[in-house]
Amino acid sequence: MARPIFDESTARSFDTSRRTVGAILSTIQTHLQKVFIVFTIGFLGIFYALRAFVWDWLRAITESKMSAQVAGQHEIIVTTPFEVILLQAKIGIIGGVLIAVPPLVYLSRHELRAQGYWPRTSISYWKFVGISLVSILLFLGGVAYAYGFFFPLILGFLAEFSYNVGIDPTWSIVMWAEFLVLLTLSFGLAAQLPLVMIVLAYTEIVPYETFRDKWRHAVLGMFVFGAIFSPPDPISQLMWALPLTVLYAVSLGITRFIVALKRGGQPNVAETFRKNLSRLLGIPLLLAAGAYAVLATSLGENIEKTLLTFRTIVLPETLPVHGSSEIFREVAPEFGIPVLLFLISFLILAIYLVIVSVEDIPLQTGRMGDPTALDLTTLDAAGIRAAPDASFETLSEVAVLSIARKAIDSEDYETAQSVLDRFDAIDRDNANESSRSNDVETATADTDQSNTEDIGGILTGSASGMFASFSEEKDEDDIGGYIYDIKYIVDSLRSRLLWIFLVFGVVLMGVFTFFYMGGVRIITQDFVSRMPSAVVSIDDIRIIDLHPVETLMFIIKVSTLAGALAVLPMVLYYAWPAMKDRGLTDGQQSVVYEWTLAIALALGIGTLLGYYYIAPGLIGLLVYDAVQGGMRISYRISSFSWLIIYTTVGVGLLACVPVTMWMLFRGKIASYNTMRHRWREVTIAVLVIVGIITPTGTLTMILVAVPIMLAYGIGLAGLWVVTVGGRLDFGNRISH
């Protein structure tokens, strides 16, 4: 009989997911007309809203914080005839789907309840409407923050950055709009954090104590989330993560209040307000008075321009709400802002006092006096030994092993061993007691005793297997000797990490600063001036970026690559003794000096040769037909600059490949036969590295990878000559 591919639990999970999807599809078939109407309304509304005023509004938001000089150079362009209408349709489809999902889920409630994905108890209509309304308001709040503060500052910063570098900020409407849509959705979804925390804690899916105790992990996750979805600069990541951290703290307080009420806590609002009345009124009054005093000075005009320019930042001109902002503008500076500040601060303080007025009720995980409700994961070794037997009798072997593994992960091996010993002893006692109560013949009793020993030995074997991984006596061949080699080498570099990271940071910041101070413009102008004057002039070529973060990402990539190349000789020099200890090389450490000097010479000579002769002629040949045809040449920074790098520094890097191969051979790190037989692995590694550091596109990756592999072949040919066809290879001498 053939063995199944999946175990029973996995197959059951797949079957449950299949039935759930089937139930939703069945709902779509039943209510297709209703769902399609909702989708169509959302699609058409968004599609025509984009045509009517959204594009102009987004353009105004994008340029609201740019200087006049940068705004004059900034452009939103269309690169293909169907881009705009297809983009509007794409955004309309996304919006229509998002609008149609809640009604679809609601119409599927009966099928989802049958599958266990809907609460068994009925939810009142007002609760459903209230939760939906809160979710919509939170989403709109996140979007308002994005368009009111984040986008104007960040897009202005990115455009100024490109302009200062020497690039014209000419953004493709597709890339610009997709960038805004992605960040809009991410801000709206991130704003759902309070609702998600409250629902999870209220239903005890994730206890409130977990949110409270794991706040450090949550903050780290917010910064990681911000690094993924926001532009790769510190300002953007801080503007993303810091508001989300504040929102997490507020959500934690609200969650505590609601969970405490559910657990039986009683709010003492009147008494709390009575004791804190002076602070409840005094703090808002002081803030309002301070705001009025500031507005009465010359700072009031600057604050008015910064905070009350609704037309150019928040509201499109076509909305009727926009007209009312002019009335508010007349009264806001001296009266509106202090009153608004008083009301907001009073409301925040009142909410805070209501939250703290409820006593924090701890989570009850079982009946009082019930030994089976004891959480063994919270006990130390002494607590495990003192725990009642009933706490272990209801546990399965898998559950006990899970508790022991958690203790091992915390490096509490004594507790892990105590858990296994207690369960083993209780299991053995139960088996012995069962055999004594069974009045049978001696042979039957012996059989029971044998079974008891088998049962008792199950966890002993499991414990031996678990703790064997922490034994000092290990066979490296069982796991792979290279893992231990790498770990040993990395450990030897720990004392040198400060200097390595210092050099890496200095080189990275130096290259980044050079580009930021106009290095791209300097190199471009000098490079174009070296092309044949009969072919192209400096006015014929314009460097642009089609994506808001394209210039920033290019400079970060180049700076990181320069930093990595700078510290590579240092890493190899410091790691050389450890490599000799592990038998990875028999050569002298002085080879590193020779290799560094040879690499520097090869890189320098190749770069100069490419910059003065190869690259100008090659690029001039590429643009000749376009110039003769009277075309306007606009190259993307990620394409033109990489082309310059490939034809200048790339020539030097190609020369470094055979030089490095010779030094690896001379340092007895890699033999000729090893490099010859491992060419497939080298090819894969080259393709992976090239795919990471080069612009997207298979053709570009191939154009870079093929010359590198040709240089690798040249290096192999040179080593073949030196080793007389491999006969003098040091690997052969060692084997003999």
TrEMBL record:
Composition skew (Polar residues), residue ranges: 440-451
Gene that encodes the chain: tatC_3
UniProt feature, compositional bias: Basic and acidic residues: 430-439
Function: Part of the twin-arginine translocation (Tat) system that transports large folded proteins containing a characteristic twin-arginine motif in their signal peptide across membranes.
Transmembrane segments: 35-54, 85-107, 128-159, 179-203, 215-232, 238-259, 280-300, 335-358, 497-517, 554-576, 597-623, 643-664, 684-704, 710-730
Subcellular location: Cell membrane; Membrane
One GO CC annotation: TAT protein transport complex
Name listed for the protein in its UniProt record: Sec-independent protein translocase protein TatC
This protein's record includes keyword Glycosyltransferase: no
Source organism (scientific name): Halalkalicoccus paucihalophilus
Molecular function, one GO term: proton motive force dependent protein transmembrane transporter activity
UniProt subunit comment: Forms a complex with TatA.
